[in-house]
Amino acid sequence: MTDPSDPPVANGTALHLRLGAAWLATAWERAWAAMWLPASIAGLIVALVLVDVLPALPGWLHLVVLAGVLAAWAWCTVRAVRGIRWPSWAAAKARLETGDIILHRPLTAAEDDLATGTGESQTALWQLHRARAQAMLDQLRVRWPSPGVAARDPLTLRAVTVVALFIAVVGSWGDMGPRFIRAGWPSFDDSDTGPTVKVWITPPAYTARSPIFIEAPPPAGAHVPGVLEVPENSKALVIVTGTSRPTNMIVGDVTVPLEKLADQSQRLEQDLPRGDELIVRQRGRVLGAWRMTSLPDMPPHITLVRAPREAGRWRLRIDYKAGDDYGIEAAKAHMALADGDDGEAPIDVDLTLPPFNPREASQASLHDLTAHPWAGRKVMVRLSVTDQAGQSAFSETAEALLPERIFQHPVAKELIAIRKGLLTQPEAVVVPGRRALTAILQKPESFGGDPRVYLELVTAKYRLAYASVAESARTLPSVLWAAAVRIEDGNLAVAEQRLEAAERALQEAMERNAPAAEIARLIDELQRAIAEYTKELAARMPEGDMALLNPESGAKTVGPEELAKMMEQLRQMTQMGAQDAARQMMAELQNMLQALKAASTGANNDPDVKAAQEMMRDLKNLTAEQSKLLEETFKQAREQQLRSQSGDQGASRQQQQRAGDQQEKLRQELGDLMGRMAEMAGQVPDGMGQAEGAMRTARDALNAGAWKPATEAEAEALAQLQDSMQQANDQLMQALAEKGVAGFVPMPGEGQQGNDPLGRRNGPDDGSQVEIPEAPDANSMAERVRAILEEIRQRAADRTRPGDEQDYLRRLMKQF
User: What's the CA dihedral at 589, 607, 748, 491 to 10 degrees?
Assistant: First the structure.
């Protein structure tokens, strides 16, 4: 007989596999019957961990609960393992033979042996029986395990465990690892209230959005936003108090540790990474978590309103529109030669912008590029704009002709010809240029004997004689240009250069918030430059146009006294710390200086400007003539009343005819002036039309001898003429602006002032555009407020300070 504990060797591998499966099924039934309770307890422990209940307990209670459940589970597990009795091969054979089909134990029969001492017939019968058993082995099947645990679990603890695990896994999906860590690592903080988290999210200053302050746990009654709207490029300040254990800030895939400060305090300040959630975590324990949504900073945009073209004084005018959601930092024009010569470096010029980083800008930027070698050539112009976040955008490309200055003085024209030769064909112009300069130097009176021009020409002559051609071509064009401009304009060109340099230096100092002493010094330099420029400009102005500069002439426009007063106000603003008001005043001052430059010879020689000036002078003279006629008519009306009381006949027919003819003459002059204005500006002020009707009524009354009604009609005509002056000036300004003329028309009449073609004021501010502050404005103190708030945060994070002081600091921060 074979040993029942040994596995069978008959019938091959298939029978071995079925017998092994039967053994495993029997082992599983015995193991599960013993281990179902420890397994259910383990499932409930995992569900408890995943619902994240343990970290909310105090550290000691967390440790007690964790140790208790683990000890209970370990005791049950050990007890169950000891009770397991693993099956033998005989039990596996019995399970295999007692399947669903009753086969009379064929496995046992196939492995059994016949007793000794049998006869041949018995042996044959045994062999037949064994052969039949061997044939039945293929019908053996392993029954599914049936441990019978349901009878041992009347409370269905297993089902409760499965449901709890499902709910816990779904609720903790994506955060299961950290929850296991938090459950297995109790926190033993010394504070009674536990860790507290304070988070300040400060948007970039250019967004003008308020900082976001949140706490965890939130104070009683505090509003906790569901989602934090955070602009891009914001900064985060995280302060954790009440714990000394390592803490991290997690945003998206970025994890940053906090820096330890004083006792039980930690701090972190840095740019806020992009992410959908901000988490403050301590070794798997979440101290605070907030959902976030990012407010994107949209890129800026810029477009050319029309193709760049020449304006007055040979300046290039670029009309553009630009915008950004938070404000424009800079705008530039990039120019390249239209003929495709890549060897030349492109020109980049800054476009003029309104102050205070405007969100929208519609500007006309004027640029003097006549000194550039490309003057007179076609270029391709493309604009770019940059916002305060550094994002850039470009406009479409347009073709333009760079204005070329036309010189009238013969010596200046000769110098410009030499300069052009050095820029285009330096080899061919060196010898003729040196001879031409020698001839000019022999007659200093030809250029007015200016010593500075003389030195520049001598320098150019000897460089052509002794320097290399390449060196001459590189250095002499600027020297010859300066000499030609000085010959053409005299000291006005030098004064204008000094004015532009002083204006630029003051603007840069104000942009970088320079000290008040430095700004005061630059204001003095700008004031001296303006005085020198206005002196030179007044010397070149025709006698009839002196009203442009003389504030005592009745045209209250740009004058040294007004500019000096404005700069004194600018100095006072900077000393008071009113930076925003000072920048606004600086922008107004720049507009006035632009109008002052536009009053130079180049603008006043423009035929459109002269025509506009003539029309305004004619309107002023017509108003004066109408005023004289009103005085005479009033005198006649009074005399007529006196004569009628004394019985006299009254004024003669000749006097009536003469007065009527004079009124008709003024009416015809007004009609002619209205026609010229309509031709130039495309419209006529309403007051001029009403004045013309009043003049017709006055004429008819004078011809009829009705002096009193004539007086009333003439007074109405005079009032309408006076009222139409400002409107006529504005319409002419608009017409000049549309034609690209960088000049302005003087506004006759005391107290009147107009705008330049770009819509900017020609006179000093009357208080309607720039508010003169009496104290530092709040916006200019933003940096100081930030510094104070930072100091308050530092002190509030110091747990060593008294409780009353910390409470005061927290209330103070809420006000901010």
Answer: 50
Residues above pLDDT 70, as percent of the chain: 78
Distance CA 447, CA 445 (A): 5
SS3 260: strand
Angle at which helices 469-489 and 426-441 pack, to 10 degrees?
A: 40
Query: How far apart, in Å, are the Cα atoms of 391 and each of 239, 274, 329, 436?
Result: 32, 17, 10, 52
Question: Which H helix or E strand runs over 643?
Answer: helix 607-646
Residues with Cβ < 8 Å from 416, sequence gap 6 or more? Answer: 407, 480, 481, 484
What distance in Å separates the CA atoms of residue 235 and residue 202, rounded to the nearest whole number?
Answer: 5
- 352-405 pLDDT, tens digit per residue, is 888 778 899 988 888 888 889 899 899 999 999 999 989 999 999 999 999 998
What is the spatial distance between Cα 392 and Cα 384, in angstroms, rounded to a whole number? Answer: 7
Name the pLDDT band for 547 (thresholds 50, 70, 90). very low
**Element containing residue 119 per DSSP (H, E):** none
Interatomic CA distance for residues 219 and 712, integer angstroms: 78
Alpha-carbon distance 127 to 119, whole Å? Answer: 12
Helices (H) then strands (E): counts for the chain: 23, 18
Q: What is the dihedral of CA 779, 784, 788, 789, to 10 degrees?
A: 40
Spatial contact of 740 and 314, defined as CB atoms under 8 Å apart: no
Q: Which residue has the higher pLDDT, 252 or 191?
A: 252
The H or E element containing residue 606 is none
Classify residue 347 by its DSSP letter: E
User: Which tokens belong to 203?
Assistant: 């948007």
> Residue 807 has what pLDDT?
74
What Å distances lie between residue 64 and 59, 183, 313, CA to CA? 9, 12, 90
